[in-house]
Amino acid sequence: MDGEGQGISRRRIAATVGTVAAAAAAGAVLPARAAGAEAAEREFRADTGAGRPARPNVLVILGDDLGWGDLSSYGSPGIRTPHLDRLAAQGLRFTNGYSAAAVCSPTRFALYTGRYPGRLRGGLEEPISRPDEQVGIPPGHPTLASLLKAGGYATAMFGKWHCGFLPWYSPLKSGWDVFFGNLSGAVDYYSKISANGVDLYEGEVPVESLGYYTDTLADRATEYVRRDHGRPWLLNLNFTTPHWPWEAPGDRKVSAEITARMRAGETGALSHRDGGSLETYRKMVESLDAAVGRVLAALRASGRERDTIVLFSSDNGGERWSYQWPLSGAKGGLNEGGIRVPNILRWPAAIRPGQVSHVPVVTHDWTATILEAAGVRPPAGHPLDGHSLLPYLLTGARPPKRDLFWRTRAARALRRGDWKYLRTAAGEALYDLAGDQREQADLARREPELLATLRARWEEIDGTLLPYPA
């Protein structure tokens, strides 16, 4: 990474890779060789000789609509994020990290299934906006949580789900043991009102909580990581920060006004197009950073920091108040600003700190990576579209060579190496991102053969996906 060695001892590499290889060789899913939670606990307690459990805990933290440059470690000139900056310094920061889609729901489909959003009907919604029996992750469909749970992991989700509504869909129906959060795409930070009414659930039971949502989720996550689980765990911590409405900690008056308008039937009030400011946005992002810092402190106090994979990312690019420079575009579009997001990975037991990688990675790569790190394989009938980065992360192997693919109803994009093919309502374009991250120099006329090749590849992948409903 950046031309330097991995800084991982041969013994640690051997222990890590050996554990994963042994698990993968044993069967499709770990319980094929071990009897569920009891065996998982034995492995978790065992000393591998590298001072860590056989399989890591996994903490996946998502910001919501957090732009590529909204962290100080990614160049923000006005926002200070010391906790996330420290996380990056302790692990690996990716400069070419991408979300699987340009809006909320499809990216979450990709993270949870490890596949292109367009392989499921619900993944075609951009985003899911209302209860619909046809729109969600079907119960029984393999997910990151269900696969890890079958391998003996405890599983929990706190925060935004946005992959289908009750009574048909919920995290509890898709492999998570514990859920506290909202089902929809956005809620008021204090009242928890959404376009579909108050939206906060403990499991599948509606509950009330009037605290600032970012802090409430941090409280739940802090308590969870402090527990003595006795076996490895997966925690998906899905903040709604810094998604609208534009409410920083203490903005109860703003919350009361928006809530009253929503209850009076003005459903568009939640999008808060008549509010917000750069100062409010700064406070929201910094509150997210503080919340993450509290969770990481609890993890450190638990004694399991070294043995835990922590992944931080965003579900798509930023919008109104986000800092995107030098990228163009924003949430909802397939220019870089709509899909390039912060990606930070830390795993002290296996990855040397202080690294920066320019390798392009995408949401569903992390699904494949986490499963391999846990020694869990997806079923044969559920091939992943993501590619595991584990050999690259642990031994410095060449990163997976593949094309990154995106589509929306209005646009298409494909990245191969530094080249990016983009088609929007304005027409087709070809960019060399190595020297033009801002996508201003269209090289389509100069490189017609490459343009045709990337177009054909995009159409090949698209042909394997569900069409958008008419």
Brief characterization of the structure:
The chain has 470 residues and is an alpha/beta fold.
Give the tally of β-strands: 18
Largest sheet: 10 strands, mixed
CATH-scheme architecture of the largest domain: 3-Layer(aba) Sandwich
Tally of helical segments: 12
Shape label: globular
The main sheet orders its strands as 9-8-5-4-10-1-11-12-2-13
The CATH superfamily of the largest domain appears as Alkaline Phosphatase, subunit A
The percent range for strand residues is: 15-25%
The name CATH uses for the topology of the largest domain is: Alkaline Phosphatase, subunit A
Features of this protein?
single chain; 470 residues; alpha/beta; Alkaline Phosphatase, subunit A; Arylsulfatase, C-terminal domain; ten-stranded mixed beta sheet; four-stranded antiparallel beta sheet; 30% helix; disordered N terminus
What does this structure look like?
- It is a single chain.
- The protein has 470 residues and is α/β, with parallel strands linked by helices.
- The protein has 2 domains: 10-400, 3-Layer(aba) Sandwich (Alkaline Phosphatase, subunit A); 405-462, Arylsulfatase, C-terminal domain, CATH 3.30.1120.
- 30% of the residues lie in helices and 16% in strands.
- It has 12 helices and 18 strands.
- It has helices at 10-26, 36-45, 82-89, 104-113, 144-150, 213-226, 252-263, 278-302, 336-339, 363-373, 390-395, 448-462, and strands at residues 57-63, 92-94, 97-98, 154-160, 178-182, 193-194, 197-198, 201-202, 205-206, 233-238, 308-314, 343-346, 355-357, 361-362, 404-407, 412-416, 419-424, 427-432.
- Strands 9-8-5-4-10-1-11-12-2-13 form a 10-stranded mixed beta sheet, sandwiched between helices.
- The termini are far apart.
- 54% of the residues are buried.
